[in-house]
Amino acid sequence: MIRVLLADDQSLVRAGFRALLDAQPDIEVAAEAADGEEAVRRIRELRPDVVLMDIRMPALDGLAATRRVTEDAGLKDVKVVMLTTFELDEYVFEAIRSGASGFLVKDTEPDELLRAVRAVVAGDALLSPGVTRRLIAEFAARSKEPAAADALAGLTDREREVMALVGIGLSNEEIARRLVVSPLTAKTHVSRTMVKLGARDRAQLVVLAYESGLVRPGWLG
Fold first, then answer.
1. Separation between Cα atoms, residue 112 and residue 18, nearest integer Å
2. pTM for this one?
3. How far apart are CA 206 and CA 197, in angstroms?
4. How far apart are CA 33 and CA 66, in angstroms?
5. How far is CA 152 from CA 161, 163, 201, 208, in A?
6. pLDDT digit string (tens) for 115-164?
7. Which residues belong to the signal peptide in this entry (predicted)?
């Protein structure tokens, strides 16, 4: 059973999401929160699998709340998905850098929301290729001189290669075709790379690829 916590200051939004999620045989809403402070408190208490976190909330906004969650080692298995009104919300970039696993617009189709919740729990890519590439382009535009690549010393040559392909926004299937391996093998390489680097998810792996200098601005495929 996938346990979800809903954090949004609009009760109608929470009610709509709850009705959809609770109707699924493999998903349940563990709790709701109307602001960031309450969200962090309930997350620490309940340790849900997924948090659907609105960016703009009173008391503590979703961005700050996400940082508190992702910086807490005891909550490393909690996946945070940001909720935005617009796909190009100005805070989405910082949300991903803060450790969020992805984002969804509030008018996402019901089937897409359910797919996203299940995907993020499974560790699969949540962001669509188009959104991922826009995120990467934004990161490239803001990135500074990359840090030393010492953090990548424990990776094999193949894992570095796979990480670079993740960094330019390729899916597991696209990586598999590029390297002429099976999608399962590509996914295994991605998973092992995340474990070695302590990355919470694929989105953070993209950020690390840029911060380490493994991928540079202008390498978008």
1. 15
2. 0.72
3. 12
4. 13
5. 11, 10, 16, 9
6. 889 988 877 656 555 555 566 666 656 655 555 556 788 899 999 999 99
7. none
